[in-house]
Structures are given as C-alpha cells and as structure tokens.
Batch of 2 targets.
Target 1
Amino acid sequence: MSQIRDNIKPAQVPPPCPLAAIARDDLFVHYTLESARLGNRPMVERRLADLRGCFADEAAFEAALRQGNPLLYSVSSVEPAAGDGQLHYGLGILQPGKIGAEYYLTKGHLHAHRPAAEIYVGLAGEGAMLLEDEATGESRLVPLRTHSVVYVPGHTAHRTVNTGAAPLVYLGIYPSNAGHDYAPVAKNNFRHVVIERDGKPMLVPREKK
Ligand SMILES: O=P(O)(O)OC[C@H]1O[C@](O)(CO)[C@@H](O)[C@@H]1O
C-alpha cells in the first residue's frame, strides 16, 4: 500500500493566484451596449478596406469601397494576467450591412495556440458564428444573438457575421495563451460564405475562382 502511495506523483501545484498583481480596473470593468467599449480600453477598428480579400464578391467590394470606407467592427480587450489558467476577454461590435449578398463579417482567425477554445456571449443584435475545423474543413453556422452563448472549440477557425439590421455586440472569452493567428484565413479564407437569400441567412460553399 505504502509502495503504491510512494509511486503517486504529487499533482502540479499552480503558483498562487496573483490577485495583488492585478490592476484594480482589470478586476472590474464597466461597459455599455451603446459604446460597446470595455472601460477605457483602446478600440481596435476594422474598416472595409481592412477586409480586402474576405468577401466573395470582389466587384461589389471594390464598388462599396469607392463609396467610402465605413467602420465594420471594433474590439476592445481586457488582459488582466498571463499564464496557465488565466483568461482574457474582448467586446466586439459588428455593424449591419452587406457586400453583394454577403453579410458584414469579421476577418476571422484561428488561435495561435490551437487547442484553445473560446466562449462567445451574444449581448445585442442578431448574427452568427461561422466555424470551420482546420483539419477537416467541416463547417457550422451557429446563431449568435442576445441571450445566447456559442462554444468555439480549439482547432476551429471562427468568424462573426451580422445577419441583422442592428449592431451585433458580443463578448469573447478565451485563455490568456490563445493568441490570434490570422495567416491561414488570410491565405485560404473560409470554405463557406454567409449570404442573404429570400431574406434569410444561408450558408453556401464559396465559389472557386
Ligand atoms: O475576426 P477578428 O478580426 O479576430 O475579430 C474578432 C474579435 O473577437 C474576439 O475573438 C473576441 O472579442 C477577439 O479576440 C477578436 O479580435
């Protein structure tokens, strides 16, 4: 018996929670749905020109860009602590609109640390998450709206789409070591496109060029 006990390795003890090391304004952050900004954190803004290559209808994209360079979405983030078990989160606001038949969308990314999952909490508006398994290309369109939560598994490219008429506001919560890897989506894009057909969102395969 004692021999068995001797062979049991002690569980790894995590370092003590660095509560004192966390800034007070990282422990409590206020936001409003109108500003969709976390406290006074900087807003990263993505305008139409930043989304070059994302939309399927390139002629419609160039035509829209000639009319102006509207703000499509903004994200502010809180990163209280790094290290094993810690979390970061971001508040996003994605405007309504379309390029051709395709709804306004975010660039989309994989996590640099591929196993990292993410939780999206819908706070306002009506949209969806486009999920794509990196290895198999398997795709899902999952609704994201007020009072809904979407689970994004690890190893899954994810893009947010606004399918409604009002701004889509959402909170994304992810492991502190997740990181953003934009390169695979920038190179290959998603295999599917979310378009409006007969007034409703529909997932269709991207046409080959
Ligand atoms: O597709 P993008 O450009 O990364 O935008 C989505 C944003 O949503 C989040 O996943 C959560 O707010 C951010 O990490 C990310 O920047």
Note: The mean pLDDT is 93.
Target 2
Amino acid sequence: MASIADYYAGKNVLITGATGFMGKVLVEKLLRSCPKVRTLYLLVRPKAGQSMQERVSDMMKCKVFDRVREDNPDFHQKIVPISSELTQPALAISPEDVERLTSCVNIIFHCAATIRFDEPLKHALQLNVIGTQQLLNLAQQMHHLQAFIHISTAYANCNRRHIDEIIYPPPVEPKKLIDSLEWMEDSIVRDITPRLIGERPNTYTYTKALAECVVQKESSKLNIGIIRPSIVGASWQEPFPGWIDNFNGPSGVFIAAGKGILRTMRANNDAVADLIPVDVVINLTLAAGWYTAVHRLTFPPAALVYNCTTGGINPFHWGEIEHHVMSSFKRNPLEQAFRRPNANITSNYLMNQYWILVSHKFPALIYDLYLRLSGQKPQMMRIFNRLHKAIGLLEYFSSQDWEWNSENMNMLMSHLSPEDRKTFNFDVRQLNWPEYIDNYCIGTKKYVLNEDMSDIPVARQHLRKLRNIRYTFNTLLLVFIWRVFIARSQMARNIWYFVVSLCFKFLSYFRASSTLTN
Ligand SMILES: CCCCCCCCCCCCCCCCCC(=O)SCCNC(=O)CCNC(=O)[C@H](O)C(C)(C)COP(=O)(O)OP(=O)(O)OC[C@H]1O[C@@H](n2cnc3c(N)ncnc32)[C@H](O)[C@@H]1OP(=O)(O)O
Ligand SMILES: NC(=O)C1=CN([C@@H]2O[C@H](COP(=O)(O)OP(=O)(O)OC[C@H]3O[C@@H](n4cnc5c(N)ncnc54)[C@H](OP(=O)(O)O)[C@@H]3O)[C@@H](O)[C@H]2O)C=CC1
C-alpha cells in the first residue's frame, strides 16, 4: 500500500482557512513532507485592503515556512490562491475557477470557520454551516475527488460528558434554522440565541455541531472524514517546537499570566486540560485524508469521525498547567511585565471574585491613577475589562471534564507504516507535558510577541525590580495599617506590646542558652 507521501504525490489539494493558524501548519506540512504534491489551491478572501494574492504572498513569508523555504525555495509555485468568500452565494468563486477546481481537485481540507465565541448566531451559521454546505455542493461537482476532510471541534457536543466518535442528532434541523433566521431581524436573533444554543456555551460550538450534521448528510455521495481536535495549542515538534501565532484559547491566558496581568482565573485544578499540539492535529488530518481516500470500505458509507484529544491517552490537568506555565515564565520572562507572574486558578466563584478585586482591579486603579497624574492616558482598567471578557468566555472549558473516545485515532495509527508513524506522528503518548508547556511559553514570547530571546537577562532584571517594589509597597502598607490601628485602638496597642515583649523574651532566652553552650 502507498505511503502517505506517495499517496499525495501528483494530487491537487483544495484547502479552506489556509491563512489561519491550523491552515498554515497544514500547508507547510504538505509541502515539506509530501514534496511531490502537485498543487495546493487555497480559497482565500481579500481582507483589510489586501488582495488575496497579497495575503498569500505575505503568508508564505511567515516564519512557519522557513524549513520548507530551505528545502525548496520555489515552493510558492505549488500554491494557487483562489478568491473566495465563504459567506457569499456559491462561495463567490468565479466560473473559470469553478471549472478549474471541479476538473482537477482530488482532496479537500475544510478548515475555515469563525472560531469566535461571541459571534452573532446569524454570522456563525452563515460561515460554519451554510459555507460548509456550499463547499459540499462544490465538492459534488468535482470529477476526481477522493476525500473531503472537515475540521470540526471536540467541543461540538460539549453538552455531553462522554463523547463517542459518532455524529449526534443535531439540536435542530439545520435547514429549518437557516430558513427561519433568514427573515428575522438581528435583534430578534440575538434575543432568542440563548434559548437556541441551550446547554452549549456559545454560537461557535452550536454551529460546529450543525455543520457536522450537514457534512454527514453528504456521506453517501462523498468520502468524508471529520477531525475533532480539542484545544489546539502550539506545535510540539514541527516545523519547530512551540510555534504559535495567535491569542486564541489558552495562548492569550498564558501571555496575560506571563505579563503579570492575569493573577486569577476560574478553572478546576483537577480537571483534564485537553490541549492538543497543532502539529499532532495536522499529522492526523493528513493521515485521515490518505485513509479516507484509500480505504473507503464502510457500508453503508458513513463519515468517519476522529476525536483528536489527549485526555484519555496522556492526561494533564489545569493545576499542572498553571504550575508549569508560571515556572516557565519565571525562568524565561516576557519583556516589560506589569507584575511578577503569579497566577492562580480556583474553582471557587467567591474566591475568584475576591482575587479579581484585590489583584486585578485594585492594582489597575492605582496604575491608572499614576498614569493620570503623570499626564498619560489611563489604560489598565480597559485592558482588564477586555481580559475579563475573554476569560469569562473560556472558563466554561477550564472548569469541567469531558471524556472522548479516540478509538479511530488508534485504528488509524495501526494502519500506518513505521516510516509514516514517524513522519506523521500523532502518538500523544510520547508527549512530555512539562517540556511541551515550556516550549509553548517560549513560543508565545518568540512568535506571538516577537520578543528577542537575547533580552531575557533584561526581563529578569525587570522582574527583580518589580519584586523589590512589591516588598517595599507591602512593608509600607503594613506599617501604615498598623500605625492607624495603634493610634485608634487600645486593644491593638496591647497586642503590639505583647508581641514585642514575647519577641524580646525569646531573643534573651536564645542568647542565654547560646552563651551557656559556648
Ligand atoms: C496560567 C494559568 C492558566 C491556567 C488555566 C488556563 C485556562 C485556559 C482555558 C482555555 C480554554 C480554551 C477553550 C477552547 C475550547 C474550544 C476550542 C475550539 O474548538 S476553537 C478555538 C478557540 N477559540 C477561541 O479561543 C476564540 C476566543 N476568542 C474570542 O472569542 C474573542 O477573541 C474574544 C471574544 C475573546 C475577544 O473579542 P474582542 O474583544 O472583539 O477582541 P478581538 O478578538 O478583536 O481581539 C482583541 C485583542 O485581544 C487579543 N486577544 C484575543 N483573545 C485573547 C485572550 N484570550 N487573551 C488575551 N488577549 C486576547 C487579540 O489578539 C487582540 O489584540 P490586538 O490585535 O487588539 O492587539
Ligand atoms: N484553534 C483551536 O483551538 C481549534 C480549532 N478548531 C477548528 O479548526 C479550524 C481552524 O481553526 P484555526 O486555524 O484555529 O482558526 P483561525 O481563526 O486561525 O482561521 C480561520 C480561517 O478561516 C478563514 N475564514 C474565516 N472566515 C472566512 C470567510 N468568510 N471566507 C473565507 N475564509 C474565511 C480565515 O481566513 P481570514 O484569514 O481571511 O480571516 C482563516 O484562514 C476551524 O474549523 C476550527 O473550528 C477546532 C478545535 C480547536
């Protein structure tokens, strides 16, 4: 049987979401580990005043392509951008491009989605569900299509505690929902959204569940694989350890904690932190593409679902994450930290609110006062408000446990040759969590914040300065509070004299006993 790289040789691949976090790693891995792949067609939209060609050229300059660039400086010749807006009718692809794609594409990887947790339902539905349906319609016109791989999320069914590798009945028939929302005003949709999404925490997980259902409906006509990654984090090994380019999910939390801004967050210390490195997800995705195309053996045909998670295989917990993140940022501090990194997680709501007040709001107020007095614009309170909004949306995922069955991941691994298992490694049993988290934190510093590693001694010096400021501040505060008490209360004075006399007694006792022993 052909190896994975042999299978992709000479194939034309269509990718949506290639400019995103996972899309870039997918494009890079295909070019590097399947160098004989013929063409990668990337569906890209123009954005922020840039044409799609400009966006793709910029993307190819990205550091993540350094290794591919070394191996093959002309790798861009294999990339063909196609202008497409997934929320538009027929994906806004020109008739010439449709002709081209339908005549030659062999595999589709559908990564594009809105992953925002606060996306209005109509827009999330438009992109995640209707966009997927339109792509499936296009796929059906393709004469040589061998596999359609849809990237979903392990949290599509987060209303359940145990999640099997099956597609669960949708919360509502997608077509009915699309038809009814079409005529509704945005304000009405906003009002009924909580009722519609029910036990799910946001429109993202809700629309991803509906998208799976839309995909399943086409499984009698297409070879379909569905990948459900859990919380996708920085890369483990490839193209280099710790690569990450965004603030999504835990990355933003790690950075905020490393900068000393985030001090408290609601999370369960003992709950499994189901992080999965991005290169593991991409290796599994490429292997699933190969398997879906080569082994279409199920009858009746059904989409094969792969829960791509770590919790059941190599569990690690939020409490351990907290410990390793803090330790990593103390060894390799971020530049210009606001305070020394010292974040704690708690599952207690009241305790969290107390720490928010004491460790977030109070220092922010003092700092903003300082900025105001020195003629600058106050900004810390604004930053904290945004941070609270972001972590408020994430807490649902860090406060509870899920159990995913990942038999199909094991089954797929058993079908790989020893060579493919190395090249497309998704065996998370080998993942060393402390080392991974250390690289992850360094990755946020190098690739998200673009900080120089050679500046670490200066950053450490800055942390020492912050520690000294804290000691001085705490001492002054203590003295001040005590002075106020002593001045006002006879009882405080009595306690004070008692403690001081006790100290003297101890001192004189130790001095006497040390004189005797000498
Ligand atoms: C140390 C101990 C810690 C231990 C405990 C750690 C616990 C971590 C828990 C993580 C759980 C993650 C669960 C994810 C599960 C689902 C996975 C998926 O399927 S799907 C994948 C998961 N999907 C997601 O994760 C999407 C979640 N994100 C969102 O939905 C939105 O970004 C938003 C609503 C949070 C903010 O909206 P909005 O106010 O409109 O703001 P914009 O978006 O326009 O960004 C504004 C600025 O803020 C920046 N920034 C962004 N996020 C964060 C952050 N978290 N933080 C900080 N900063 C953040 C952003 O870069 C930007 O900077 P700039 O360009 O202005 O300089
Ligand atoms: N990141 C994570 O933790 C997880 C992600 N997933 C899934 O993985 C997939 C990829 O996620 P990730 O890479 O993190 O997401 P990103 O937000 O980084 O990337 C999303 C991609 O979708 C594209 N896109 C968005 N809207 C449109 C549109 N209207 N038309 C065309 N393209 C569009 C974006 O293009 P543009 O650059 O133009 O905005 C971008 O390329 C998603 O399906 C997500 O649900 C699943 C589990 C976890």
Note: The chain has a mean pLDDT of 93.
